[in-house]
Amino acid sequence: KAGVTQTPRYLIKTRGQQVTLSCSPISGHRSVSWYQQTPGQGLQFLFEYFSETQRNKGNFPGRFSGRQFSNSRSEMNVSTLELGDSALYLCASSFLGRHNEQFFGPGTRLTVL
Amino acid sequence: GENVEQHPSTLSVQEGDSAVIKCTYSDSASNYFPWYKQELGKGPQLIIDIRSNVGEKKDQRIAVTLNKTAKHFSLHITETQPEDSAVYFCAASDNNNDMRFGAGTRLTVKP
């Protein structure tokens, strides 16, 4: 089985711009969760989608949004980028949900200048 | 909600020695405890997990122990090798679809 894939792997944006990140889960997995990883804050949960519905949401501002398509692929969007949004964005797929086994992708490294 | 604390934040061992990383959790309803290994430039990789109905689980050189009464669980790596060098994360979750991660431990294995 192919693992979780994320595109793009690296991204450089400037403040005020918006960005869309993509995640393709393991085949058969319906849950996709997104995390922000920074050296100071560790792994912070953004949101989880399960069968196209947002099931859980972390404590992030409304500039962070996401969606999931019928094939379980998910996208995450960040609008009006700020310098503090620079981070590694990870997605994880799971068959049952994020409270169970999760398999992470390689991440998208976002740099905001 | 759940709070997971992980210690130590950095650990340096000599090749061949054992390494132990400990985590404590606050929510007694937590019932699933995975461990992840993250190498430089990669996403976290699930290396072992344990559920609350089991006290210990082993997979080759890696073992995890769980003490539900004390609400702590530990990762044990024996006969460490340089390729074990990475950041290790513990996590705890319950059936309310919540999973919290520890802050991570940077393990360095010196040849």
SSE layout and pairing:
The complex is a heterodimer of chains A (113) and B (111).
Chain A lengths: L4 E3 L2 E4 L5 E6 L6 E8 L3 E9 L2 E5 L6 E5 L5 E5 L8 E8 L8 E2 L3 E5 L1
Parallel strand pairs in A: 2-11
Antiparallel strand pairs in A: 1-3, 3-8, 4-5, 4-9, 5-6, 7-8, 9-10, 9-11
Chain B lengths: L3 E4 L2 E5 L4 E7 L6 E7 L6 E7 L4 E4 L2 E6 L4 E6 L8 E9 L3 E4 L3 E6 L1
Parallel strand pairs in B: 2-11
Antiparallel strand pairs in B: 1-3, 3-8, 4-5, 4-9, 6-7, 7-8, 9-10, 9-11
Offer a concise description of the structure.
The complex is a heterodimer of chains A (113) and B (111). Chain A is mainly β and 113 residues long.
Report the C-alpha radius of gyration of chain A, rounded: 13 Å
Mean pLDDT of chain A: 94
- Summarize the biggest pleated sheet of chain A: 7 strands, mixed
Label the overall shape of chain A. Answer: globular
Task: Estimate the strand proportion of chain A.
Answer: over 45%
Order of helical and strand elements of chain B: EEEEEEEEEEE
User: What share of the residues of chain B lie within helices?
Assistant: under 10%
Low-confidence stretches of chain B: none
* Ends distance of chain B: 41 Å
Structural class of chain A: mainly beta
Q: Main interface pair?
A: A-B, 20 and 22 residues
What composes the largest sheet of chain B?
A: 6 strands, mixed
Name the structural class of chain B: mainly beta
Taken as a percent bin, the fraction of beta residues of chain B is over 45%
The first-to-last residue Cα distance of chain A is 37 Å
Round the Cα radius of gyration of chain B to an integer and report it: 13 Å
Oligomer: heterodimer
Based on Cα principal axes, name the global outline of chain B.
globular
Low-confidence stretches of chain A: none
Mean pLDDT of chain B: 93
Q: How many runs of DSSP E, i.e. beta strands of chain B?
A: 11
